[in-house]
Amino acid sequence: MKKGYIKFFLLFFLLIVPLTFFPKQVIRFVSGEEYPPFIWKDEAGKPVGITVQILQLLEKKLNLSFEIELLPFSQALEKLQTGQAEMINLIFKTPEREKVFLFSDPVINLESRVYFRKPLNIKSFSNLTPYLIGVVEGDANERILRQKNPSLIFKYYRNSEELIAAAKSGDVEVFVMDDLPAQYFLIREQIFHDFSSLAPISIQQTYFAFPMNRVDLVNLVNRGLSQISKRELRDVIGPFIGPRRFVPMWVWYLVLAVSVGFVAVFTLLIFINRYLAKMVEKRTEELNKKNEELMAANEELDALNQELRASFQELEAMNEELAQMNKELEERTSQVLSFQEAFVKLLDISSKMTYETIQEKDFLYEVLRVFRQYVKELAHIGVALRSSDPGKTLFVIYRDSNEMISQKIDKVIDFQEMSSEGIVKEIIMQVCGTSSESENCTMRIIKSLDRVYGILFYNLKNTKIKQDDLQRLADFIATFLALRSYIREQGIFQKRLLLVMTKALEYYDYYTRGHSEDVANYASRFAEWLGLGKETIRKLYWAGLVHDVGKIFVNQQILNKNGYLSTEEYEYVKIHPVKSYELLIEAGLEEIAHMVRHHHERYDGTGYPDGLAGEQIPFESRILCLADSFDAMTTLRPYKRGMNLQEAVGEIKRCSGSQFDPNLAQEFIKMILNEKIT
After folding, report:
1. Are 528 and 659 contained in the same domain?
2. Which one, of 110, 114, 276, 76, lies nearest residue 204 by Cα?
3. What DSSP string describes 399-452?
4. Helix (H, G, I), strand (E, B) or coil at 10
C-alpha cells in the first residue's frame, strides 16, 4: 500500500511540478512577409505554411512556444541583428551572414530549376538560347544559369507571383525559380501539368538563424530538428507541392480494358489449349505410322550407301586430276600475287598524294614505274590522256629499258572512235623513234562511269598474263582521275557557297559591305606573314568572308542603328557568332565554322559566346579577332570617326593580353607597320 502512494507522488512530481515551475519558453520568431509556400497570412490574418508547421512540430518536441511576426525581409534581419527577435525564418547561409548570425543545422534542401512548356521539348541548357527566360529581379539563379549558357536573354519580374502570372498568360514560356515556390504557384494557378523542367541548376540548404549570443537556443532547436523524422518533414511539405508524375484518368480506363482483354484472351487460350491437346494426340498416332514407314525407307538407304561407296572410288580418281590442276594454279597464284603486290604499292602511293594538287604526269610516272617493276613480262606500257592544255594530248610511256618518256602532242584524239588506235600507234612510233614499240600493241580504254579519259596501251612478252589484270590497272587510273575531278568540283562549289552567303549578308546589313572582304584580306595576309600553310591561309580567307553571316538572325533595325546599341540590343547582336557557326556546320564547312564561332572570344576569358581564354581559343579565331577589330577601328561610322594607323596600333597595344593574344598582337603590329596598311 505504501509503495502505491510513493509511485503516485513521484508521478505527480514528474508531470505537474515541471509545468508549474518551468513554463514554456516563448521565442520571438520573425520572417519576411508573403513567401509562399514557406510562410504567408491566410484570409483570417493567421500565419500559415511549411515554416509554421515545422515550428508546431518543434513546439511538440520541445518546451517552446513561438510568437510569429511577419515583416519586410530587411526589417526582419535588422530585428534579429539588434536582438529584438530571437529566431528568423529559413534563409541561405553566406560568409557575410555567418559574421553576424548563428545558424541551425540544415532544415530543407532547396533546388532551383528551369521550367518550360512541355511542347517546347527542351533537352539541355544549350537548347534555351532562342527563348526569353523569366526571372525574379535579384534572384541568384540568373547568375548560375548564365554560367551554363552565356547566350541567354532574361526578362525580369518583381516577385514569384508576378512571374508565374506571366508564365500562365504566355508572356514567357521559360522561367527559372526555386523548386518549392514554383510548384506551389503552378498548382495554385492550375498549370502544373503544362510545364516540365530540366535537371536542377543548384541545390542549396536552408537554415534557421539566431543572434550571436543565443548559442543555447541554437542547440535547443537543433535537438528538436533531430527529432523530426524524414516522414514528418515529407508530410509537412507534401500538401504544398505537386506530384512529379501525373496519370490521366483515361490511362486507368485503358489499364482496365487491357485487364479485361487479358482475362478474355487467357480464357480463350485455355479452350485452344484443350483443342490442341486433342490434335496432338491425333498427330502422335499419325507420326507412329510414319515412323514405321521411315524404318522401311532406312533399309533402302543402306542399299544406296553401297552405291555411294562405288562413287567414292570414282572421286579418288578425280582427286588425282585436281592435284595436277593445283600445280597449274600455283603457277597462276604466283603471278596473281605479283599483281597484288603491284596494286598494294599503287594504293599506298595514291594514299600519300593530294588529288587536288598532283599533276597527271607525276602520278602516271609513279603508277607505270611500280606496275612495270612487278610485271616483268611487259615490253612497254603507256598512257594517252586528254591534256589540260587545249588542243593537246599527253603521252607517258615506260619502256623495257627503264626509260620514261613524256610528251604533249598537238593533236586532239577522240578515244571512243575505232580510228583512235591507229592514231595512237603512229604517235608511239614518233615518240619512241622505232616501229617495234607499236607492234602487238594492245589498248584498254581508261573510263569511269560515262566519262572517257584516255587509253592504256602495252606490249606483252608473255601471253600468260591475263588481260583482266591490265583492265584493272586502267580502272585504277580512271578512278584516280575521277576522284581528282570530283575534289576540284567540290572546292569550286564550296567557294561559290561562301560567296553567296556573304552577298546575302551584304544585302541585309550595309555595314558588312566591304567589312567582310577587308577582314578576309587582313586575316589571309597576316597568315602569310606568320608563314602558315597555303590550306590554312585559304580557310582563313573564307572564314573572314563569312564570319558575320549569322547577323541575318539579328533584327535589321539593330544592325543598321545610327548610334550606340543599348544593353538589350547588344545582347541580341551577341548571338551572331553562334548562328554563323550553325549555318556553316549545316553547309558542311566544319573547320571554318569553328574558326568563326570564337572570333569574339577575348584572351582574358571575358568574350562570347563560350567565354574561352588564352590557348583555349582556336589559333585561327585569334587571328580573325585581330583582323576584325583592326578593320572596325579604322573604318568610319556614323557615330564615330575611323582611327589612323598610329591610333589603331596604340589601341592594339593597349588591348594586348586582355582582348588579343599578346604574341599575335605584336606580330600583327609589325605586319601593318611594315606593309603600311591604312
Report:
1. yes
2. 110
3. ETTS-EEEEEES----TTSTTHHHHHHHHHHHHHSSSGGGTT-EEEEEEETTEE
4. helix
Cell 596598311, residue located: 677
The dihedral over CA atoms of 284, 290, 295, 299, expressed in degrees to the nearest 10, equals: -170
611, pLDDT greater than 70: yes
* Alpha carbons 155 and 175: distance in angstroms, whole number: 9
449 domain residue, yes or no: yes
Q: Do the Cβ atoms of 447 and 453 come closer than 8 Å?
A: yes
One domain, residues 523 and 671: yes
Cβ contacts of residue 528 below 8 Å, gap of 6+? 537
What confidence score (pLDDT) does residue 334 get? 57
Distance CA 55, CA 63 (A): 12
Q: Does residue 230 lie within any of the structural domains? A: no
Mean pLDDT confidence for 360-381? 70
635 shares a domain with 530: yes
For residue 266, give the 3-state DSSP assignment. Answer: helix
Same domain, 554 and 610: yes
Looking at the DSSP bridge assignments, the partners of residue 71 are: 32
Q: Strand runs (DSSP E) across 440-511, as ranges?
A: 442-448, 451-460
Domain identity same for 453 and 529 = no
Q: Give the residue carrying C-alpha cell 559591305.
A: 513
Q: What confidence category does residue 482 fall into, taking pLDDT thresholds of 50, 70 and 90?
A: low
Q: Which residue has the higher pLDDT, 597 or 367?
A: 597
Alpha helices in 509-589 (DSSP H): 515-529, 534-546, 556-559, 567-573, 576-586
Question: Which residue is it, cell 523530426?
Answer: 228
**Count of domains forming the chain:** 2
The sign of the CA dihedral 564, 568, 570, 576 is negative
The alpha-carbon radius of gyration of the chain (Å, integer) is 44
Domain with 394 in it? 353-467
**pTM greater than 0.85 (yes/no):** no
Element (H, E) at 100: none
> How high is the pLDDT of residue 210?
97
Identify whether residues 368 and 442 lie together within a single domain.
yes
120 by Cβ neighbours in 10 Å (0-12 / 13-18 / 19+) ranks as middle
Q: Are residues 441 and 530 in the same domain?
A: no
Q: How many C-beta atoms lie closer than 10 Å to residue 540's C-beta?
A: 27
Q: What are phi and psi of 132, to 5 degrees?
A: -85, 125
Which has the closest alpha carbon to 668: 493, 527, 532, 504? Answer: 527
Helix, strand or coil, per DSSP, at residue 260: helix
Among the listed residues 359, 314, 642, the one whose alpha carbon sits nearest the alpha carbon of residue 488: 359
Q: How far apart are CA 644 and CA 672, in angstroms?
A: 12
In a domain, 408, yes or no: yes
Provide the pLDDT for residue 337. 55
Specify if 262 maps to a domain: no
Higher pLDDT, 478 or 355: 478
Looking at the structure, do residues 561 and 457 belong to the same domain, yes or no?
no
